From TrEMBL, chains A, B:
Pathway: Polyol metabolism; myo-inositol biosynthesis; myo-inositol from D-glucose 6-phosphate: step 2/2. This is Inositol-1-monophosphatase. Its EC number is 3.1.3.25. The keyword Metal-binding applies. Keywords: Hydrolase, Magnesium, Metal-binding, Quinate metabolism. It catalyses: a myo-inositol phosphate + H2O = myo-inositol + phosphate. Pfam families: Inositol_P (PF00459).
Length: 334, 334
């Protein structure tokens, strides 16, 4: 089993931060190439006839190549898994083992990037013994760099520790959660209009979380707000920040979530499975399995007068499970 | 009828930009007071016992007072309507007439601000003859300042003209829209679980826009993405930017949209009513009436090979109307 000292981890963290910053710059360069420089007056690197999707694909591949090359040069013994390399291969089998592994999405929020909606980012996770221990998420259009290293805390722009509200104490989850919570969810790509298919199960779950207390046959959660950003990675980053209280999603791959889970867990958040167990009120709450494609994340929480922080989080997990439907996302070979 | 020269408008625009920047700084100061200074280590201006909602209310009121005072000092003859002043009064009647009027939301995205989710902003609109002619939207946590003045274009951070993709030409709306479009919508505050109430009509509309082509009895729109940000003002700003293609929402007030409409229209976007007319395919597409609480916005669009930009936008308006339900938002006294 691989063991890394804190000093080794710190060195890898510094390296990861550096490539995360440079990769974010490459994503912004890709924006500039499409709009003609910083003030829109420069020369376009692409002609009008270039398809926006092709341009985005090229940036995506270039950023992955940059990150992969940098890692292979510095840490030749480490494994590398990138979203782009997966997509081109025939298989989406789960490939992570106990060895030190980099799990990278060069461009998360691809649809957002295509449309130049700011919620896109590069996501770099470093995993040892199946556990994401370093996470870098750089959303350069919003000047937001999220990072964490096991034992070193989770940070926004290397300056503000996550969650943001922590002084004098991190607030517990609300007593009557999911009420007073911001609930983040995504519509995803599976839009088949199949009776009881994923789309309809998701929407039923969203409405249960949103509807007034007493509505939906007692399932109404009256959340404070429902948000959909189009980036699983940033959903996790904002949950670590404490800005989103609950994130519930299925269908994402390990490169979408590896860095986000590292940051969320280092900040004190909880991540478990999206699909409710048979007995939501009493089932054990296990850590989400990377590669499971089913995630429910709860923000960092401190103690209330009667509960530990973890107890307030687990209470919310059960309240969400009570309101959501199981989703059907398997993976080839799994 | 009030008439202002371009020079007068330019002066008002410079003034509005200045107070928009200063108001954005006040919103960030409010964040710092809650998390203890820029690095989280400073002294908290509020104690643990202060309710987050009360703190937000105080910031909201302070920012409105700042903006109102600045305007009254510089332009004592102008009318001023602020979200906070409305809320405290008994009436929500529509108060805008042909006189030069400032319509201000000191803090749009209040729920986001309470949770420190970055999608909050100050919104300052200046209206003459019922038409928003100057708009300032400052989202300081993301370093995004949107602005426009009639005749001077719409801008991001005073540097990048909107829409962002405009060189060598602004793209038309997609041929098969709403497919390939990002659709932005909000769940809002009306969560009553009433059969055929606003919540269920909204959700039915969202699902129609999202579902696969051929689904939903032919209404499936298969949009590229569905987004919910929790700020009507920023929805409009991002539509002006070209990042969101379609925004459909009801229930917002004039202070939520005045600045956003100014910016969207100056950028070349279209804004009309959310509620589909009896004959969506042929009804005239009229400009949204400020105060109507019903809005459908389409991003700026250039010509295709067979259509003008406006024609591509109007085609999308009709495609949206075909898929959405009419919503019930009246106003007291209207």
């Amino acid at each position: 089993m691989a063991q890394l000292s804190q000093q080794e981890l710190d060195e890898i963290y510094a390296f990861a931060l550096d490539i995360g910053k440079r990769a974010g710059k490459l994503l912004l360069d890709g924006v500039d190439k499409r709009i003609g420089g910083v003030d829109g007056s420069g020369e376009l690197a692409f002609t009008e006839k270039d398809n926006a999707v092709d341009i985005v694909t090229k940036t995506d591949e270039d950023v992955e190549t940059f990150i992969r090359s940098a890692i292979q040069e510095r840490y030749p013994s480490h494994k590398f898994l990138g979203e782009e390399s997966y997509s081109k291969g025939q298989s989406r089998h789960y490939l992570i083992d106990e060895k030190p592994t980099w799990c990278v999405d060069p461009l998360d929020g691809t649809v957002n990037y295509t449309h130049l909606f700011p919620m896109f980012c590069v996501s770099i996770g470093f995993i040892v013994n199946h556990r994401p221990v370093i996470g870098i998420i750089n959303a350069p259009f919003m000047n937001q760099l999220f990072s964490s290293c096991a034992g070193r805390g989770a940070w926004l722009n290397e300056r503000r520790q996550l969650p943001l509200i922590r002084n004098p104490s991190i607030p517990p989850m609300p007593a009557n959660a999911p009420s007073k919570c911001i609930f983040s969810c995504e519509w995803g790509k599976d839009r088949r209009d199949t009776p009881d298919g994923n789309l309809h199960r998701k929407v039923e779950s969203f409405v249960n979380m949103a509807a007034e207390i007493g509505g939906r046959g007692g399932k109404g959660g009256m959340v404070h707000g429902v948000r959909s950003l189009g980036s699983a990675t940033l959903d996790l980053a904002y949950t670590a920040m404490g800005s989103l209280d609950i994130w519930w999603e299925a269908g994402c791959w390990e490169w979408d979530v590896a860095a986000g889970i590292a940051i969320l867990q280092e900040a004190g958040g909880l991540v478990t499975t999206a699909n409710p167990p048979e007995d939501p009120a009493n089932a054990p709450i296990e850590e989400a399995r990377l590669g499971s494609r089913l995630y429910l994340a709860i923000r960092p929480a401190g103690p209330s007068e009667t509960e530990t922080g973890r107890q307030t989080q687990e209470r919310v997990v059960r309240e969400v499970w009570r309101r959501v439907r199981a989703l059907d996302y398997s993976r080839p070979g799994a």
